[in-house]
Amino acid sequence: ELKVEQNPLFLSMQEGKNYTIYCNYSTTSDRLYWYRQDPGKSLESLFVLLSNGAVKQEGRLMASLDTKARLSTLHITAAVHDLSATYFCAVDMYMTTDSWGKFQFGAGTQVVVTP
Amino acid sequence: DTEVTQTPKHLVMGMTNKKSLKCEQHMGHRAMYWYKQKAKKPPELMFVYSYEKLSINESVPSRFSPECPNSSLLNLHLHALQPEDSALYLCASRPGPSTDTQYFGPGTRLTVL
Fold first, then answer.
1. Nearest residue in chain A measured CA to CA from B36
2. Parallel, antiparallel, or unpaired: how do β-strands A109-114 and A10-14 relate?
3. Interface of A with B (CB under 8 A)
């Protein structure tokens, strides 16, 4: 059974400082996805990481994937209030290249950014 | 059209009712998914539906039944639900089978009395 572990589960950030969220998973996969969820809302896709060493950046967020370590990180640079949300990583449990895949989500990291 | 739509937004039902949730996408995506999300928890996959076949999470009770009338529409039929089934039900679609992300609809907030 694939296990996806995120930490921390809660992160209180000060505006202007840098932070990292970690996503560890238990089985071989080179497909990892990051999502954001605002309270009471749906999930918004942030990043798609599809190979070892992949790095994607969008604004103050940067995600990377190390498939050998089975680890992805989401780095937040100079946090701002608008980044307050819950962040989920998800690993695709695909079996073959034509598999529709089944996403296994981490528990989520609730981020609160304060002045 | 670049979105997944879900109706209704909110649904309150009794344990003896039969209701349906609807999900629609017009992006030509080839797979659609139903997830259940409880408060402060991650989404849990219920069903994966491509127009070729249905894949079921075996832990999902039979009081939930999906239906895919065509490649753009996915329904979730609800019957004899329990209060613990109250949750946010999310539909998602995916362009292709391999590497694409999933695009989520806004969800239906379900309350079972």
1. A42
2. parallel
3. 31, 33, 35, 41-45, 48, 50, 88, 94, 97-103, 105-108, 110
Per residue, the 3-state secondary structure of chain B, as one string, reads CCCEEEECCEEEECCCCEEEEEEEECCCCCEEEEEEECCCCCCEEEEEEECCCEEECCCCCCCEEEEEEECCEEEEEEECCCHHHCEEEEEEEECCCCCCCCEECCCEEEEEC
Q: Per the CB < 8 Å rule, is B90 touching A44?
A: no
Check CB contact under 8 Å for B102 and A33.
yes
Query: Per-residue pLDDT tens for B97-108?
Result: 667 889 999 999
pLDDT at A70 over 80: yes
